Amino acid sequence: MALIETKIREADNIVNKYMISSMGVGLLPIPLADLIILSSLKLKMLHRLANLYGIAFSKHLSKSLIASLLGGGASLSFSYGLVSLTKSVPLYGQLTGMISISIFGGASTYAIGKVFTQHFESGGTFLTFEPQKVADYYAEQFEKGIEKVKKSSVGIKP
Fold first, then answer.
1. From CA 46, how far away is CA 58, in angstroms rounded?
2. Which of 44, 46, 56, 120 has the most CB atoms less than 10 A away?
3. What's the domain range around 16?
4. Within-domain flag for 2
């Protein structure tokens, strides 16, 4: 029992570390570079979680699962892309884009980490992951992630 709790605590530490890193990436002033780095951070987080649970990691499969979990990927990527591009508008656009990407990047990273932690804890692998079955749990964790991001962010308000 203590071993399971230790593993869950380590998984939580991994998720929180990558959530905070994702928040920082949102503050980059360069449009679209933030989205590339956020994607890489989420993949690295999944790789670390997979290693923790002794699960074979597949970068290609992980990308597909993340895209499926985020609603097919296309509409969300487009939305994030537009928000990221607002950074090219001086002052207000930069500030709005940076805050938005920081909040949503951190929250989505947190939610993805929690979903995969639960899946791995139950004995699942990347091959047995079914995004549509965890969509509600992802949405719940995303909301919790927004709250965690707000508490972690001094002076950042959505």
1. 10
2. 46
3. 7-151
4. no
